[in-house]
User: Fold these one by one.
Assistant:
Number 1:
Amino acid sequence: MNRLLILAVTLGLAAPGVARAQAVSDPGADARLHFGPLGVTPRVALRNIGFDTNIFNASGTPERDFTTTLATGADSWVRLGRSYFSGKTSVDWVYFQKNASQRSVNLSQEGRVDIDLLRLVPRAGGGFLNSRQRPNDEFDLRIQQRQLVMFGGVAVPIGVKAAIDVEHRQQDFDYAVGKFGDALVATALNRESRTTTVAGHLELSPLTTLTVRADRRLDRFEFTPARNSDSYRVMPGLEFQPSAVVSGSAFVGFRKFRTLSPETPDFSGVVAAVKLKFVALDVFRIVGEVTRDVEYSLDLEESFFVSTAAGVEVTQAVGLYWDVVGRVRRHGLAYRPTIGHDGRVDRAWQTGVGLGRRLGEQMRVGLDVDYVQRDSVLASRAFDGFRVGGSVSYGY
């Protein structure tokens, strides 16, 4: 990987003067508020104002409760000479009326600095998450977790339409912190992940970029070293600017997931990360998402599962201020057991409808009804329930 970094820097320095790196655009230029060099875009939303008929995803007698979430945050940018500082702050207050033990305050903070040196743009940053929410669809209970991340990288241009990007990222996962940490979850999932990524970018048009990413990831577990793994992934795809009719990104590739324990099978197969949005005349919007990748399991006898999810949400404007929303999502969890145990496939569904009204350009009031269901050969993992709630949002 050091050779790749040296090659990228050498190519950047060897590029002709007219092919120098495009100046980093001022990311805070479109911020809603400006205080000298500081740009800030605030966000606030009151979500899920209503009832969840199965707050614990229980397979037996479900428990119902009134709940709401106050989500606040801000994106911030500062430009000082050739340096660009950016940050993203989010604070969520989650309230349950009867089950006070489920109330929580969830905080995340990200920070990053980019330095425009014309022929190359180095960057560094980090962040943390302290949350008590479900990390993914496998979790039934809300588990307190802490994540810490640090990263550094450099972007090097090749001509005016191509670039190479190299980044190294380290992320720590801890599920035993705080009053609501869980020792059993920590035993299964506490780990350190180190990922090195090399990406090539080619601008096909002002709105479309072809990107090929290759990464190497090492996962090392704190309490269960038998779960340690090395993996390699290649993901070619397209990225579309927000102003395009179809925006977002679509990556489909291959991952080789090699476990370091002879009792745990490896995985080689297709992975995907697709999220695209189509907007027609500001009155019709459709957002589609497809993901497929490997995730670690809570169950020590089933080391990991292949997660495959697909969903679509359609929004249709009705008149000048109203909109109606329909959504459906399917998620499959194909478990890969250790040798001597049987695997299984759990399937989760979510369907819902919503109605909303715009109050100006940035504020929206809405009401949503969703039905969620998970099917499993294990009776203790199957559940269903309704989630009914209103929302008031600004800036989201």
Number 2:
Amino acid sequence: MRRSIACALATLSLAACSHGTLEPPYHRPALPVPPTFPTEQPYLQQAPNATPATWQTVFTGPKLQRLITLALAQNRDLRVAVEQVEASRAQFHGQRAALFPTVNATASALYEREYINLPAQFGARDFRVTEYQLGLGTTSYQVDLFGRIRSLTRAAFLQYVATREGERNVEITVAASVASDWLTMAADESLLKVSQETLATGEQSLQLTQSRLNNGVGTGLDVAQAQTIVQQARADIGRYETQVAQDLDALQLAVGAPIPADLRPTDLDDPNANLPVVPGALQSSVLLRRPDVLQAEDQLRAANANIGAARAAFFPSISLTGSGGTASASLANLFAPQTMIWQFAPTITLPIFTGGLNRANLAYAKAEDHVAVDQYEKSIQTAFREVSDALAVQGRIDERISATQGLVAAAADSLRLSTALYERGEDTYLDVLNAQRTLFVAQESLITLQLLAKTNIVTLYQVLGGGFA
């Protein structure tokens, strides 16, 4: 008995002193992209460096902040991500439990009647047996000499951490989606106002051409041409009213709840649509803080840990099974010293022939590790392309807006002069018609560019991993 106990203690001590695993050393892959983002035209010219920020420092408008706060509480995609984190954490704790022995308390009672000697017709006698047992036991506790269980536990933990980064990525996406949908609705409200203003101008022109026709100085062609502007404006109003309604539906889906009327945008001139200036001097290493990149690296590290577990399967494994307690034929003597019982059964298993299973599992773990490396590098390359695209837009957007603002001003002057010449009879209505159409198209283009400038800042917030300052 003493030798068995000493053997058990030695085995447990050896397990306690063994902290190593068979995982290969982890080295983060080198960045598969240039060290800096493009700086030549048309990319954004570099200015102060960017530092991490939060959505509150990017979307400072009270309306947007209230909407994003509501979305972070109600958005169903984010709720799913949170539950996935909880599920992954539960899996980690379940795997971690294998590092510890399981101890169970048992209690039993046995009542038995047996016959001895011959059957009853030959004078057989019977007797009854009663036995009570109470004890503690552990079943199949595996001593983790070569770190197999520790590697599996580490892999489960890294998968849990990866799901937490996934949750953060969803949070950033939700905030960006709410801001983009809100800005899109604001732009469509602006376009609706332009269409309504165009309708009012067209109706005035129609009245003018009709009056000139009634006075014998105009033509039916002028009236018909004026009507085309009116009807086109009416059609545009219907189109933009539909788009505004659809924008509201999209915004409510992103938020996950009905949108209060006071949080809806009026137009792109709404103060809540003001967003910060984008910084420059961005190093590509900034991509390493993106949640999706961090998630890919955590999955890579988990795959590396799985290699250690697969390697450990080639070595012997030791399992311990034991129990101890008391047994007695009567409850009164159940705790007497002479009723103590114990059992200890260590088992060592050495894999000799597994039909290639262990080699196949190791090859699979290494292949999964190579896949994880490629996915990690692809996530960085994708992030680099997304940031570069956004910087390309941001680099010339102010110039494009300025040019379009000049076009709107010139078109407005052209309409004013053409209308004055037509009223004096010095020009045809065709020039007025062309000027009205040119102005409307220029106004649409300006609003579209202003929306692009604002949503591109939202895009930069997202692709830079959740903000800039």
Number 3:
Amino acid sequence: MINVEEWFMIRDLARQGLSITDMAHRLGCDRKTVRKYLAHPDQPRYKGRRPQPSKLDPFKPYVHERLESGVFNCEVLYRELCRRGYEGKKTILRDYVHPRRRSARHQACVRFETPPGQQGQVDWGHFGTLWHEGRPRRLYCFALTLGYSRALYAEFTVSSGMMAFLRCHINAFSELGGVPEHLLHDNQKTVVHSHDPGGAHLWNARYLDFADHYGFVPRLCRPYRAQTKGKVESGINYIRRNFWPSCPDVSGLDGLNEALSSWLAEVANVRVHGTTHEVPRVRLAQEPLQPLSGVPYDLSLVSTRRSSKDGFISYGGNRYSVPAGQALSQLTVRETPEGRLEVYVGLECVARHDLAAGRHQSIVDPAHFDALWQALREPQDSAHIVLAGPRLGPEVSEPQVEVRSLDLYEALARGEA
């Protein structure tokens, strides 16, 4: 069988008046072939090769389902298919997914609008580093955009942890004048702990408690579907393009947030929005937001720590003293929004410290060791000193400590002994 180019040459040589023998000689084919295609002037058509069966065929419906849910990672898909009995190579799966991944990038989206007061969208943006409290810190921008009005609240922080996350929510509710019915989030640890292969997710209990306190319902974006919360991501990009390049030279985090607050009030929320063609502040008045709860939410972080044998607990990269009698004890630690660290035994607060700004520091309250120093100064009747904390148990022997006069240590410090 000849190809299309050879067929075209036969037709062209025939129009030039060449004989069948000359045409066959020029094309290097049999005269019967030339005669055949002169007698049948239609262009030759080829039947495609019959597709070969693939080991992936029985699993393609499942692959399509996962692709529609936004999962294009072939490593993930390959593990899931192997658990379902797939015996083919990973390259077969990659060749099948690759063109569908590329087409998904250019897939058209339908803009989803929400009625007034129904939805807000929350996101974080990263803006490099900031010198804060004596050391460089990562600089984050929290943003909350209301879906109907496009009113935007934003705030810079040096932490994206739970306390900062909830505090930014409260500040946004206060600035915008209330709480929407739903808040849409990305799949971050402060909102959701994990997902299972079936699509269910484990919510962060602290965030659910916060949502219940303020009366909104948290929602999650579909994984790998960033356009689900495109309104707030547009807000982050707007801050990055409009505010950040012209940000005044300010000192510190407070100055940066003051500049951002002025920009929100004078630029972002009073411009004519490119999608709604209305002013966000004007549309905000039409949003029936829920009023804030009268009782403020307690932002304190509560955790447990075991104190060391020398009477310290470790918290946030620093060491804080506790009373000597609580050495080797399990203690409850409460970090307050005011920057204080409180240590509890049951309901009794046994220690309070100001949180240290840096790291690798030891913060000591001398009163915590008064009783221990007093015991050391008193004459000892026994041949050893009992440990300050709970006893380690009868099977653990306590160390033998030679009792010496404190005058000896003072003489050593002066270099006289």
